[in-house]
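Following up on my earlier message about pyridoxal-5'-phosphate. Here are the inputs again, as you asked, copied directly from the submission form:
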Amino acid sequence: MSIKKQITIIKNEIKDRANLIAVSKTRSIQEIEEAYNSGQLKFGENRVQEIVEKHSKLPKDIEWHMIGHLQKNKVKYIAKFIALIHSVDRISLAKEIDKHAKKENRKIDCLIQLKISREESKFGLQINDFKNFYESLKNYDNLNIIGLMGMATFTNDNELVNEEFKMIKTIYDDMVLIDSRFKVLSIGMSDDYDIALENGSNMIRVGSKIFGKRNY
Ligand SMILES: *Cc1c(COP(=O)(O)O)cnc(C)c1O
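Thanks, got it. Here's what our run produced:
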């Protein structure tokens, strides 16, 4: 099925509950153009080199989202144009984002990535560390925390995925009450965005369901 058809199907499922981030990592300029020509303006990438190259080659009204693990020494390459960084999970990274945002004379919107799955390899802040982490971000005026991101366990066990999304939604709801900037809950990917939407997601990150299977 075409990229355009897939986007239409997903947008119909979402209705107006959530923003769709088309995850275009590993996809060609042509594939992204096809999505763009069907009206998709928000794209997510997980590698700095790739996002910088695609940003330079594609239309300037595209909103670029950094959704993957971000190395400190690469923040400088995206600070000028990045729309939202979903993966803030340590102070050293927050400090670096703040520094480069200042240099660019802007504020950079960010999400705190929480580790909600029990899998070993996933990045993200431990839930027990969340409050302290959030408090220490108050020192960084040019880093604007507007919500949370999480990735559920990669499993067929929908009940487990449901529990993990419920956990992050609870924390998100608490934060909305105390911090008026909080407005984004970024949960849900190709295989679990239906469960994420049931749990109050308002931003889903979908790759393979739009562009087809990736080769890794
Ligand atoms: C790759 C990726 C996605 C999209 O995954 P799909 O299963 O292809 O939809 C979403 N979020 C993050 C952080 C990713 O790295």
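One observation from looking it over: The chain has one domain: 3-211. Hope that helps, and feel free to reply on this thread.
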